[in-house]
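Deliverable D5.2: sample structural annotation.
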Amino acid sequence: MDYSTIGDAIKDPFVLKQVKRVLSETRSLLYHKWNKEFTEESLEEYHNKILSRFQNPYISDDIARVGRTPIRKLGYNERFIRPIRELKERNLDYSALMETVGRIYHFDEPKDKESVKLMQMLKDEDLKDVIVETTGLKDDPELVDEIVKSYHNAEKDEKKA
């Protein structure tokens, strides 16, 4: 999958399905954490609004811009690992987020310093060490192993594409 904009990517049925799955998982987490402030319907409405923004050809973001700073985004309390940890704590599904994390480790953008650094780390260091270093999951070897598996699955998907 080689797209230059979010608008191009979201036209791919696989990407659209993946985005919907991630939104569903994050919606589930938000509802379980703050069900007194949100209804499932209001969260779904909000996520549909986000999805329609992604699909709007006049507001399309560059993939390189959206994907930049992958190391920061993989941080312990950032947008992927924190929801995964919290979903896991609640025994809720986080498989789409996990698949996304595996793909983030393959984000290779030569113009982004963090992407270049991450690619070099993956080349020079043990995969598990890189995952622990970037995610801060030193106390959760089970999640680290899941990310390793997701990384390798993403690698296989890239080779098929």
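Annotation notes: Residues 77 and 83 are 8 Å apart (CA to CA). The chain has a mean pLDDT of 93.
The annotation will be released with the project's public dataset once the embargo ends.
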